[in-house]
């Protein structure tokens, strides 16, 4: 059992230990590069004690952003799930597996949930006066154009028909890799025929990681992108896996609102309006993803048109996204089912697994996003309950990648950056 101050010390030490000079590993060994949404959440942690370092996390992340000339030239603004600043042999698939060798800064060829504009807005809010505010405004002047390019990439390449609901082409893009919501659409994806060697099982017990059949399909989809020359039109039309992920849609929705705000702060009024136009379109379109059965939003297979009617925590980010239905009563119901906070899949769902990656465990950064969103919508007591669950879990178990919602055990990678950052940003400042 750690005290509040001890935990804050350990959290800061965790970030310093995972720092590789401008970017932060999620955890050494298991994830030896810079990950996209990890970087966004982790910057919040740095912000609590080193603002310069916090903003620098984004500089290094966006150094891997694709430009108008890169790899076929059709993905201007793309920001990858992994940026390979240095090589490492402790991870598969590494920098030589994606077909992106021609890039100056090598990356993977899929993206991840675009949390960055929201994280930068929160960092700006923590820099209300003086030199901290000057620094924030100086960094935002550089980063907001990059954020705009990235949001435009999502809307242009992943929603070319302007439906209001972006599509993703790989479960790793969702960040919620092996969620049971992806079981049905993955049946349409062939297993790769080529040999490959996983590395994740050198670091974490197989019972906590996805099975081989899943990896066979991840590799197939990775190779598919290369086979179509990273052409977003072909990916959108031909990829055997195409899903409206409610997690990405919710996170993009919030981020585009926050990006509009950041644009306004910088006096960029036309881009602010452009983002709000996108937000309005999604606000209406998302109604198609409502599940009467689970009383929350869910994802959809865009090839079959079928709702992926699985109750995951991604579909509870509704208040965070600012959707018309905020799902507060459903969140309250979930909270009666576990003593440790919201699991990634509802515990009453038949394919819930308490210890296996995204099929059940609790992820602290998701709970933070959910709680902040609920507080914004006036559900302060509910938000406080989620925070209290997380505080107790972290005080007992420390900073792991994820947690067993039945026992509270820490699982996956240890000394995990975004969990430490979540503590520093969300739990530590407000005391008990
Ligand atoms: C992994 O390798 O498990 C990562 O989640 C992919 O982003």
Account of the protein in words:
With 432 residues, the chain is mainly alpha-helical. The chain has a single domain (4-79, 114-168, 243-427), classed as Glycosyltransferase. Helix content is 45%, strand content 4%. It contains 15 helices and 9 strands. The protein has helices spanning 4-18, 36-47, 51-62, 116-125, 130-158, 183-186, 212-227, 232-238, 246-265, 269-285, 318-321, 328-335, 364-376, 380-397, 417-427, and strands spanning 34-35, 82-83, 243-244, 290-291, 296-297, 299-301, 307-308, 402-403, 410-411. A hairpin with a 4-residue loop joins strand 4 and strand 5. It is globular. The mean pLDDT is 97. The chain binds (2R)-2,3-dihydroxypropanoic acid. The site of (2R)-2,3-dihydroxypropanoic acid (DGY) has 3 residues, from loops.
Number of helices: 15
Write out the distinct hetero groups bound to the structure. (2R)-2,3-dihydroxypropanoic acid
Outline the low-pLDDT stretches. Answer: none
What's the CATH first level? Mainly Alpha
């Amino acid at each position: 059992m750690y005290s509040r101050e001890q935990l804050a010390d350990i959290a800061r030490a965790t970030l310093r230990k995972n720092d590789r000079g401008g970017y932060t590993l999620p955890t050494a060994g298991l994830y030896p590069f810079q990950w996209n949404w990890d970087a966004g959440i982790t910057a919040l942690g740095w912000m609590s004690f080193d603002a310069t370092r916090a903003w620098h996390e984004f500089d290094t992340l966006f150094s891997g952003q694709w430009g108008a000339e890169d790899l076929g030239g059709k993905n201007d603004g793309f920001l990858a799930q992994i940026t390979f600043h240095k090589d490492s042999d402790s991870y598969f698939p590494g920098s030589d597996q994606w077909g992106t060798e021609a890039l100056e800064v090598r990356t993977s060829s899929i993206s991840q949930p675009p949390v960055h504009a929201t994280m930068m807005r929160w960092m700006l809010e923590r820099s209300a006066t003086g030199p901290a505010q000057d620094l924030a405004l100086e960094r935002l002047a550089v980063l907001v154009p990059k954020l705009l390019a990235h949001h435009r990439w999502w809307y242009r390449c992943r929603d070319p028909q302007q439906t209001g609901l972006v599509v993703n082409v790989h479960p790793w893009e969702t960040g919620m890799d092996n969620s049971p919501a992806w079981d049905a659409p993955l049946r349409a994806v062939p297993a790769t025929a080529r040999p490959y060697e996983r590395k994740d099982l050198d670091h974490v017990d197989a019972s906590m990681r996805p099975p081989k059949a899943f990896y066979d399909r991840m590799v197939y989809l990775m190779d598919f992108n290369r086979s179509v020359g990273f052409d977003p039109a072909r990916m959108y039309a031909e990829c055997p896996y195409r899903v409206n992920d409610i997690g990405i849609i919710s996170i993009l929705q919030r981020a585009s609102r926050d990006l509009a705000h950041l644009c306004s702060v910088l006096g960029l009024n036309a881009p602010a309006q452009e983002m709000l136009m996108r937000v309005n379109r999604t606000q209406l379109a998302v109604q198609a993803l409502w599940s009467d059965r689970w009383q929350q939003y869910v994802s959809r297979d865009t090839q079959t048109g079928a709702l992926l009617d699985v109750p995951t925590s991604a579909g509870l980010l509704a208040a965070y996204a600012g959707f018309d239905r905020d799902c507060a009563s459903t969140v309250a119901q979930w909270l009666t089912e576990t003593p440790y906070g919201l699991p990634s899949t509802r515990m009453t769902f038949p394919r819930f697994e308490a210890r296996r990656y995204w099929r059940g465990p609790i992820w602290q950064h998701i709970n933070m996003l959910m709680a902040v969103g609920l507080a914004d919508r006036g559900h302060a007591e509910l938000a406080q309950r989620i925070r209290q669950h997380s505080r107790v879990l972290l005080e007992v178990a420390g900073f792991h990648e994820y947690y067993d919602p039945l026992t509270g055990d820490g699982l996956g990678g240890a000394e995990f950056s975004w969990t430490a950052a979540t503590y520093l940003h969300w739990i530590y400042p407000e005391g008990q």
